[in-house]
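Entry 14. Two folds queued back to back today. First construct below, sequence then C-alpha cells.
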Amino acid sequence: MKVEQIYSLVNPAIQSVVGETAILQEDLSNLVDVGTAIFNANSYDHFVKALVDRIGKTIFVIRKYTGSAPSVLMDAWEYGAVLQKIRAKMPEATENESWQLDDGVSVDQDVFYKPEVSAKFWNKRTTFEVDRSIADLQVKSAFSSPEELNRFVEMLYNEVDKTMQVSFDALIMRTINNFIAETIYDEYGAGADYDGDSGVRAVNLLYLYNQAHSGATLTQAQAIESPEFLRFACMKIRKYVGAMAKMSVLFNIGGERRFTPREYMHIVMLTEFKAGADIYLQSTTFHDELTKLPDAEEVASWQGLGTDLEFSNLSKINVKTAEGHEVELDGILCCIFDRDALGVTNYNRRTTVHRNEKAEFTNYFHKQDCGYFNDYDENFVVFFIK
C-alpha cells in the first residue's frame, strides 16, 4: 500500500480555510486516489515489507435505472400478433318526423340504417436481446465470501437491466419522434421554411409571438429565456388542451372527427422549456396557477443529448419516418397526443437459459419484443420555435 505524507498540503489548506491566506493553487496529485485497473504484486505492507496487501472492502456499483421515457406502455396479450382498432363513424342527423305529421301520410319506420364501421391493423414488432454468461467456479477465487460473489452477480444483472431499459426508452422516444416528424411533414411538406409560418397541428410559437407583437424580432435563443414569450407559450398550450377536448377534425392528420379529454391526454415537454417556464414565470408570480403549464411528462431531449447539451441539440429531431419522409427540425418544445395515438403494445420481456456442463458456465439470454404503433387518425399536436 502506498502511503504519502501530506503535512505540506494540510497546513497551507488549514490556513486557507480559516482565512489566513489567499486561495492558492494546490497540488492534489498525492491526495486523491483516482484508482488503478490492476495493482501490481509489489503492493506490500509497511511492517515486514513482505506481505501482499489484501482487499479490505469491496464496493459493487449497483444502481437501478428506472428509465426516463414517457409512459405509453399498453396491455400485453399471450396469443395472436395483430393489433386491431375498430371505430364507428358518427352518424348524420336527420329530420325528426314527429313534427312533420300530415293527415293520411304514412311514416316509414322500417328503414335499415347500417352503421359505418372501420378497422385498422398493426402487425409489426421489434425485438432484441442481451446475452450474459455466468461461470460457476472461475470467479470464486476473486472473492472471500458467498455474499460478495452474489453481489458481483447482482451487479452483472443490473447492467443487463440498464441496457434493456435504455434500449426500451430509446424505442419509445423514436415512436414519439416519428409522429412528431409526420405531423410536421403533413403540415409543412418537404423542404419547408419552418420559420415563416405556423400550422394548426405543428405550431410555431415563435412565429405566432412575433406576429402578435408587431415589430417583434425575438429569436429562438432569446425566446427560451424570455418571460413574455414563455407566458405567451403557456397560454397557447393551455388553449390547445381545452380545444382538443372538443370534437374536431383539426388536430389529426387523417382529418377524422376526434376529441381528447384531459384524462386521455399525454403531454410531453422538453425539460429545458418546462424548467424555463417554471423558473422565469413562477418565481416572480404571486398567483402562479395563472402562468402554470399543464402537468406533463418531461424528456431531457427528443433524440439525443448531443455533445454539448445545447438547446439546438436537445430540442432537435432528424429522422426518416416510417412513411419515408425526412424531417430535420430543432426548437421542438412540447407535444400533446391522445392516448390511442401511439404506444407500445404486447411488451414481452423474458429470459431463457442454457447450461454448458463441460465448461461449467450458464448462458442467460435476455430477450425483449414489442410493437410500436402510430395512428395518424388520432389527435397529435407539436409545438416548436423556429
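Second construct, same run, same settings:
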Amino acid sequence: MTTIGTILSAGLLLLASLLALLAAVGLLRFNTVMARTHPVTKAITLGVVAVCVAGALRVEDRTDALRLLLVAVFQIVTAPIAAHMVARAAHRVGSGGTRDLPIDELRESGR
C-alpha cells in the first residue's frame, strides 16, 4: 500500500466520521420526520460510500475491492428509497409534520 493511498483512505474515513456527526446533528436539530429524513439519508449514504471507497483502497484483492464498491452502489440506490418509504408512511399516519406544508399533493390525491 502506498503512502498516498493510506493518506487518501484516512481522509475518507475522517470524512465519513464527520458526515456521521452531521447526520446526528440533523437528527437532533429537526423535529419532524419529513425534516429529519433528508440530512440523515444524505449524510449516512455519503458516509457509507466514503468508508467503502476507503476500504477498497486498502484491500489487496481486487475482488474484495469490487465487492466494497458494489456495496457502495447498493447503498446509493436503496437509501433514498428507504427514506422515501419512511416519509410516506409517516405521512399516512399523520405524524410527519405535514400540517405545515404549503402544498400537500398526497393529501390532495387521496393516496
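Quick look at the second one. The chain has one domain: 3-95. Residues 62-93 form the longest helix (32 residues).
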